[in-house]
Each structure stands twice: as structure tokens, then as C-alpha cells.
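Anyone have C-alpha cells for CHRD domain-containing protein? Sequence:
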Amino acid sequence: MTVASMGALLLVGACSAPPMAPMSTMLSARLSGASEVPNVMSDATGTVDASLEPDSRVLTWRISYSGLSGPVTAAHFHGPAMAGQNAAPVVPIGGPLLSPIMGRATLTPSQAADLIAGKWYLNLHTTAHPNGEARGQVNVRP
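Reply: yep, here.
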């Protein structure tokens, strides 16, 4: 076999390789009382680190927080809503709700589209702030 024919075989093999799977979309949010609507006075801070698998639409998350007035009584992803707007919960987050909170959910196609478009936020609720003490708009990481 000549060097040229070996090169041709390698090229054909490379061209017939299966396509690469699409990469996960990485998402994040910064949580604060100032992002609540209306805003609340709180020392709460937090972050959301999440990923969305494009084919399965499985959303996985890790939520870390501190400085809340008390234990988290409920946590949800809400949408569709842009920053400054409120919306109903779309994905409830089950317990335990101690930091860090980790979980996953399978989204519908429209939910995945709203999430990627920046139309979801995460809200942490406490007894002192039943409508939410720390909130952050979820966005695709640059």
C-alpha cells in the first residue's frame, strides 16, 4: 500500500465518523433579594449552575446559597418571565432544600426554548419571605 492510498483511507475513515453530539448548554444565575419583584431587604446571596442537554432536554442544577433569614421552605424555577416580571412556577424543586441543592428535570420543548431565551428565574422562599427571598434570572453562560 502506498503512502497516498493510506492517506486516502484515513481521510475516508475521518469523513465517515459519526457526527458529534451537540454540547450541553451551560446556564447560570446570581441570587439576591434585590432581584425579587418587589425587591426584599435580605443578606441572601446565591448561585445557580445548570446545564441543559439538547437532545433529551434534561436540565440539571446545583444551587448554592447563604445569608437567608431562615430555612428554605420552597424553591422553584419560574417562567416565562423576563427580569422584573413574575410568573408561575414551572419546575418545583424537591427537598432537602439545604445548600447545595442538586436536582434534575426533563423539560418540554417550549420550556427548554423559554429557558434558553432567558425567560426563567429561580426563586428561594422562606417563612419570613413567602413570595421569595432570593431570586436570579437564569441565562446562558457566555
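The longest helix spans residues 3-15.
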